[in-house]
Amino acid sequence: MTKHKAAAIVLAAGLGTRMESDRPKVLHSLAGRPMIHWLLDTIAAAGIDDVTVVIPDGDAGTTVAGAVVPLDTVVQADQLGTGHAVRCVCDAGGVAADDVLVLFGADPLIEASTLERLLAARRDGAAVVVLGFRPSDPGLYGRLIVDADGSLEAIVEARDATAEQLAIGLCNSGVMAIDGERLPGLIGRLGNDNAKGEYYLTDIVALARADGLACALVEGDAEELVGVDSRADLAVAEAIMQTRLRAAAMAGGATLADPTTVYFSFDTLLGRDVTVGPNVVFGPGVTVADGAEIKAFSHLEGARVAVDAMVGPFARLRPGAVVGAGARVGNFVEVKNAVLESGAKVNHLSYVGDAHVGAFANVGAGTITCNYDGFAKHRTTIGDGAFIGSNTALVAPVTIGDGASIGAGSVIVKDVAADALALTRAEHKEIKGAAKRLRRRKGSDPDKSKA
Q1: Which of 204, 332, 345, 430 could make a disulfide contact with 328, Cβ separation 3.0–4.6 Å?
Q2: Among 99, 56, 50, CA closest to 72
Q3: Same domain, 410 and 287
Q4: Catalytic residue positions?
């Protein structure tokens, strides 16, 4: 059997004016990564490595081109419609492929299996295959008109449709698979005799039918075809993506106590038997190993949590945080660019930044590593088995030796030797009766005889 070569053209030249943003539309984030990257990964998963991205002119185009390196890009200097965007690719040399997929950079939710079905339908002999769907509100979507034999007859824009055609629920997504050999000829014959004066890619269906060529449709899930043209659309797409990521996490062996309140990034990795409490947010770059527990209201980003460790509730792990096997990061603790070795504990109300905490060390409540002197960051090292008393300030750079103890309320500015006890408290003074005399002078001493 002859292997068909497939290529993809991704339309990403739209400026996204309804986003009200200086950022190109396709670079707005979905689960922590640009929308277009989701689509490009899907294209790759469908076995397509020949991809051309159509970008806008100017700074926006430069930004998009940088985001899709090393893919080929073609500039659409004038925004003259989807057909014109594809024509720009053809005029720049086109794509050498039997099958050409045309996709939209702001359609991040489409799945590889859907693209594979489109390509299969194209290889069955149709010159043009359109991806249709049934939205809950067809609204202004173009309607797909189907022959008695199930072939695609036409795409009718909503503004041109009759009342009978508007009643059709099957709509055009804009995604197509086209015969690569016929594509340049069909695109070259597109006209712009319409209200907008644009070249519509959808018109190639009528051109192909006029040439006696077969056109077909493949129906996709409406959820896959949520396009993003506004901030509201982006929120809808985010909700769908989060549902997918939660399902994948649970299918992989993680327990989510309240799945709808847990938010993942595209690259979050959870091991088997991980437990995640309610209202947990995973930013980019988080790995949680087998058996670990992330308690409620914690926020993790750029962090690694080892086997059987526990984080939270109300903990924050910032980039560079590493929590070792069986270690504990408790409530209202923030860890940044710091390693907690196996069995270490930072259980309450502490900040540990730019530090190394040794195995089985215990950092008491209210302890902070004073890592910034106003000019530069400095590092704190806490040795294995060390004990840091509550409300201690460790002024970096400083090293606390293995097994050392620091008395509560200390401010440590010098290194402490292994197994030593360090205290920096002021001398305790007590003046008998002074508090009572002060109250009398202020007129606030209660008369206990009347109590």
Answers
A1: 345
A2: 50
A3: yes
A4: 348
